[in-house]
From TrEMBL, chains A, B:
Sorted UniProt keywords: DNA-binding, Transcription, Transcription regulation
UniProt organism field: Streptomyces roseicoloratus
DNA-binding region per Swiss-Prot/TrEMBL record: 35-54
PROSITE patterns registered for this protein in UniProt: HTH_TETR_1, HTH_TETR_2
Record protein name field: TetR family transcriptional regulator
Residue ranges constituting the HTH tetR-type domain according to the UniProt record: 12-72
Length: 209, 209
DNA sequence: TTGTCAATTGTCAGTGACTGACACTAGCCT
DNA sequence: AGGCTAGTGTCAGTCACTGACAATTGACAA
């Protein structure tokens, strides 16, 4: 763990600045009404440099999201083996929400991240990218679950199915939260818990009130 | 049901031609290696005209998919009221697969459609668009299910959850089928059925072999 | 400290998706 | 036949993104 050289630190600063400025502009003006030139100019680098840090304009919007997802995956990997698949995933997300603050502030304020998430959900191009990224993570999750349970992910359909169902619920809550008038950390946590509680009942062959 | 005028027929022919040529080019050369100019030139219209028919280059790739989805929604709406939510959706898709042929041939051969679906699954930009379109359909489905069961879609979380879980399984099967070496109508049908059978077991708190 | 190497960056030119404006052509309708 | 209007082509422009090349600047050995 040596201190990275000047070159590395400079790169990190540029990258962080690009993320912060981009998210600030995206959340205030909107994603489509923000050009890459604007972002680059604000950080005082060339447009070409922007694209050396981020392959696409969309990518910069997911820089923080990226960290959150990695965090969740790690949390899942650390869940005790006794927990069933669904419980493990449930506890991993909820646990992630609880400690999200500390991890994020280093790059952007939590508040900005929440606004960014809302923007992603309400911007068609970003929502599409978000969903695709999610499916990639789902493959990782399925692998993890399969290992935990000691089954072959290509023989037993249950890992992918469980992950798909779980992710489906997460997606729904994410969307509902994005539209809500009070988008706080607490509200998404509560919503997620509430919806996960209803996963099994929703799949009953018949619903009775 | 009067015969549409010459103007309308001409428009329809141009549109169909654009779809056919586009899908042919996409599936042979790849989506990214096909330019809009190429498609327009092949149909002998200007690029500007292409964009009057399709808002984006992606849209033309989903022209057939669009029909398939509408078909599925209609099939679900016509399911007998006694069927539970999951059964209704299951029967609606499987029924759709069975009669898909007749509906599609009018515009493109079934074979081209299957290849198109594979291309969508393997092209990142299209996969993203596909997933986003799916979430839009899911909202429609949730509404339908809620009506069938006589519950309020904004009060009772079950409709959206059931749809999300179901769609999650459909997405997984779609992806696995896209990667398979033998992508036929029969194989996707069988795969779908097999996976849907395992939805409930996959959500059990504990898996026992 | 200095000189060399390699990583970063800026500039420039080009491609391709997409849009607005405007003129033109061809069905449609009286 | 002739006017109306939907549909089309042309043109110019914006913006995301890329390859090539030259200039700069840390890193590191002599």
């Amino acid at each position: 763990m040596t201190v990275p050289g000047l070159r590395e630190r400079k790169k990190q600063r540029t990258r962080d600045a690009l993320v912060r400025v981009a998210l600030e502009l995206f959340t205030t003006q909107g994603f489509d009404r923000t050009t890459v030139d604007e972002i680059a100019d604000a950080v005082d680098v060339s447009q070409r440099t922007f694209f050396r840090y981020f392959a696409t304009k969309e990518d910069v919007a997911f820089a923080v999201q990226q960290m959150v997802e990695e965090r969740f995956v790690r949390a899942l990997a650390e869940r005790p083996a006794e927990e069933g698949p669904l419980d493990a995933m449930r506890n991993a997300v909820l646990g992630s929400w609880d400690t999200i603050g500390e991890a994020i502030v280093e790059v952007v304020p939590v508040d900005l991240h929440l606004r960014t998430y809302q923007m992603i959900e309400s911007t068609p191009a970003l929502l599409a990218a978000h969903l695709r990224r999610s499916t990639e993570m789902e493959e990782t999750l399925a692998q993890l679950i399969a290992e935990r349970e000691g089954v072959d992910v290509d023989e037993d359909p249950r890992p992918r199915i469980a992950v798909a169902a779980f992710s489906g619920v997460m997606r729904v809550t994410g969307q509902l939260w994005g539209r809500s008038e009070n988008p706080t950390l607490e509200s998404i946590r509560a919503l997620t818990e509430h919806y996960l509680d209803h996963l099994a009942p929703a799949l009953e062959p018949h619903w009775r009130s």
